[in-house]
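Worked example (supplementary).
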Amino acid sequence: MSKTIFELSTKGRKGYTLPANDVDIPLDEIIPAQYKRESKARLPEVSELDVMRHFITLSHKNHFIEKGLYPLGSCTMKYNPKIHEVIARYSCFANAHPYQPEETMQGALSVMWELQKDLSEISGMAQVTLQPVAGAQGEFTGIKIIEAYHKAKGNTHKDTIIVPDSAHGTNPATCSLVGYKVKELKSDANGRCDIEHLKTLVDENTAGFMLTNPSTLGLFETQVEEISRIFHDVDALIYMDGANLNALLGIVQPGKTGFDVIHFNLHKTFSTPHGGGGPGAGPVGVVEKLVPYLPVPIVSKNDSGYYLDYGHEDTSIGKVHTFYGNFAVLLRAYVYIKMLGAKGLRRASENAIINANYLMARLKDYYHIKHPEYCMHEFVADSSWQKKANGVNTLDIAKRLLDKGFHAPTVYFPLIIPEAMMIEPTETESLDSLNAFADAMIEIAQESKENPELLHEAPLTTPVRRVDDVLAVKKLDPIFPIKN
Amino acid sequence: MPYISNTPEERRAMLEKIGVTDFDQLITAIPPQMRLEGLLDMDEPLSELEITRRIQKQTCGDVCTQAVNSFLGAGVYDHFIPAAVDAIISRPEFHTAYTPYQAEVSQGTLQFIYEYQTMICELTGMEIANASMYDAASAIAEAILMAVRKNRLTKAILPATLHPEYLRVIRIYTEGLGIELLTAPAKDGLIDLDALEAMMDDTVGSVVLQTPNFWGNIEDGEAIGRLVRKNEKALYIVCASPISLAILKAPAAYGADIVVGEGQALGNNMNVGGPLFGFFATKLEMARQMPGRIVGGTLDKEGRRAYALTLQAREQHIRRAKATSNICSNQSLCTLAACVYMSLMGREGMVEVATQSAQKAHYLAREIASIKGFSLAYPDAPFFNEFVINTPIPAAEIISRLLPQGIYAGVDMARWGNDHQLMLAVTEKKSKADLDALVKALQEVRDV
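After joint prediction of all chains, the assembly is encoded as:
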């Protein structure tokens, strides 16, 4: 294993240059002694070359999109175009301060204004806030908006949000954070919302419904219109978790089909890099009647140009971010949308759906698929055949895929499918790369019969072998013990 | 079409393998009346060259902080970023990877997070840190929620010296959960200790301190810590500027239970205010109450050192409605920038950055205070690299008069209720000539 950066430290070594200080005021005069640190923080002392070698060495231990297929279901690991990175580094963006006079950042504001407009069109919503900085924060913002709507209407008795059992964990966690009770809705035999069960759950206390569409099973919720009627009849609102929006671009505008609120994951659908776990962005779109509750500010435009608009301050839910959201992420999504246009977005979703169905077609004879109908942009296979016949489980298969140069699918999720493998190839993968992945999966199915032990042992060729995450909990080791 | 590999022939072959003749047969689950007829109403698609030109045209009037002499701060700071930081974070190995769920092919990400956690603990004096929150504001909010989980006391005291935008975010995160936010008043630019003392009782669950505070002033963390301890159950939450911690006492030394802060200053560009990242550190005994992802050291099957996400039973993907937080994606790549930055600057460089920033800020403050009509808003409070001045004419007028001279004169405090005040931040990037240029321009404003 690589040494930590702390173990590379040599006293007196430097990795930086700074101009000489040309202002001479002794620190003792300006910082009272009792506030001063007694000894320096023991950060490493390394050269720039040491730093470069260290982090490049670490980088070689990662799987990443340019290395190979990354079929994590519901994560939409599509290729991230390099032009985004070039434009994001323009000084007028990278070095702009949020409190600059507005006339000096018209370009940056125009990017935000146009992105609001384009995301509104894509989702069929009336207006969009760009402020939430992650999908989960988008969910939080959306549920706060629903809460504000009910408050304004005097619906004080409404205290419950309904969430399907196939939902991402962030949905119920978000409801709790806002202060709502959560009721879980069962899926029916077709992997859709169980409408009979739904009818028993919905009552006057229902504030809203969170639905991922297509669901985490990769299935479009066919009964949206009926669901929408059931909720709207009790003045409850419908939230669409947009994690899987990559299936619907230019095909369905959720705001025009019964949804009241939606969040976008720009780092999924609109191709901004995932960064090893962020930063992303989670803008939220709403129908007309919810526009007054959006966070402040939004970006508006008048005769003299673009401006940060706090006009709805009195009705707004407030702010979820110190400034205006993850601008550098918004910018990348803007470039992506402008380059694809309406036709390109539609083509992206079509190809995402074709790629997923093609993979399913190639794998369905080798892996059990509970819902074998045509899927949207992803599908869920499982290892129940392998488990029953040879004692090989999904974790084994996932680890063996790593040996073959692929990332694993999302595993053991959704929770309603035991031994689930949720596979989302995305539209940017070519037929060749889909075939290579399918071949690898089929080989693994074969290996599970001939040599199950090999799969229990996998991975064999990765930088480390199977990692003991139980030990990581039992003997908690969150920081390096610096020696000097 | 950009970024789609398959040719029309391949597409046809794939549809054939699937068993359909055209795409629409794949989406029959979508009721026809729900489908969009025609195309979305959007601009025509642009090529790489066209989008580049379009953006250049859109931004030709923009003036970034590097083209002027900027004194803007208030939560986002223009510290120097060595070139090697961007060289590392722009590697696709880091920036196109996902959350390190498959540890065996994510050791690069996992190890840098472990090193980052170590550095944050070294700066703050704490024992465990997470892989980041969205910004300082959400980090404070999550710290208050964590305190409630720990001691079940739903009253939190926030100082009037806290960044007002942080307060807004904290309010929205806590209001639905029955948490009462009280304000400890300010006196002369610092928390009023007598008032805070009077507010402390058995019902207070947490006390938040920001130091340097919103106005740049260094609070007496030690004295406040003693007051917090009057209720032994209450948790002391300190929001600290990470650069200042190179020369100021680690909050653990004055009794902090949770230390959070805005990490942008550590190697991240300002980017119109985002992405930012919040760091979050605490004591080991509270590890299981923490929000967010945590990386821990462990072993692989052959007994070799390895890293993995740990204590995941706290998180939303396992615990769902009962998770410690709803956070999933965080600001990982920003923490990589911070980790590389702190590695490059190291033990001595961080001290030099902090020292130069403080010295230059104090030089500027003294010079401005000597201009007739201008004065320091809080002349008796010690400060770090940011300070507030009283202005003889509305700050907005000063800002617009200095703009054509290529100076961003600071943040107009009218935004928070005082139109005759400017707040100025100074970093190591300023030369004496830059500072003198501002002083001269302010003198001229006075003379007009």
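Two points are worth noting when inspecting this output. Chain A touches chain B through 200 residues (CB under 8 Å). The domain at 83-340 of chain A is CATH 3.40.640.10 (Aspartate Aminotransferase; domain 2).
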